[in-house]
Amino acid sequence: TPPLTMALAGNPNAGKTTLFNHITGARQHVGNYPGITVDHKEGRLVHRSQPITLTDLPGTYSMTAYSAEELVARDYLVNERPRVVINIVDASNLERNLYLTCQLLELGAPLVIALNMMDVAKDRGIEIHADKLEELLQVPVVPIIARSGKGTEKLLDTALQVANQEHKWQSRHITYSDDIDEAIDEMVSLIEQENFLTDLYPPRYTAIKYLESDEQLLTKGGNNDPASSSLLTAIVDNISNHTLKTLEVYPESIIADHRYGYIRSIVRQGVMSQNHDSDRLYTSD
Ligand code: GDP
Ligand code: MG
User: Fold this and answer.
1) How many CB atoms are closer than 10 A to CB 92?
2) Is 57 a pocket residue for ligand 1 (Cβ < 6 Å)?
3) The pLDDT value given to residue 201
4) Ligand 1 centre from 26 Cα, in Å?
5) What is the C-alpha to C-alpha distance for residues 192 and 270, in angstroms, rounded to an integer?
6) Is the Cβ–Cβ distance between 16 and 56 less than 8 Å?
7) What is the rounded end-to-end Cα distance, in angstroms, of the chain?
8) Which ligand number lies closest to the CA of residue 87?
9) pTM value?
């Protein structure tokens, strides 16, 4: 059987390298992505007789065109289409880490969440209900401690399961207010009708990235199909004028606000609770 491809994505310091080293051992290769000095690290392993190639993506907080790391991570996912993405999330810093998760879901990648640093969260008296997070995000969540390897067998089992499922890259639907959603719908119709960049991105993803003025997508779109690209840009200009007039902000910041709102609403539906025994350790009265 040919190796099955998995990628590891996460914020800097979420524990990617620790997990990568734990599950690949010494069987890894470090090089650079062509032309830039961003590490390309690839390792091999066999799990339940299945050969696996694991790629450690550069650590990023987001999945846009703001840095070489973000571009490398996104291009890798879009061009290589790994069968599953293991999104490593720092449980002791949940809300911030889930911002990238949102973007991976919008890109449509098949995901498993490795909820890392469970020991750190516990020491801080934070209990995280992985099953609740899984239910609300509708993504498998496996708690792990990468440093000790705890949970990594179950993580690989779950990743294999997801990798073996048929997966269509489809954008997770997050709502961004009536005005923005209306513009997205209009853009999606056009994108679908013209097959605009649909070999690379789900239509909704392209629409959102146009609204966020993502340089890479705008350039690709312009080179690929100038007419459709300028129709999309016209819709963006229109909605931008409107949000600037009514709210004094660009659509981009409305989108970011709603992503954070989506995450907050998930985390506050019983995903986290404070352990009262350790509460007492930190409060003086
Ligand atoms: P990366 O930037 O995502 O590659 O993160 P690293 O793997 O370099 O980890 C960042 C730091 O967190 C290192 O000091 C690790 O030893 C530590 N670390 C990683 N996983 C765990 C864990 O599960 N528990 C604890 N306590 N520390 C961890
Ligand atoms: Mg690292």
Assistant:
1) 18
2) no
3) 96
4) 18
5) 38
6) yes
7) 63
8) 1
9) 0.92
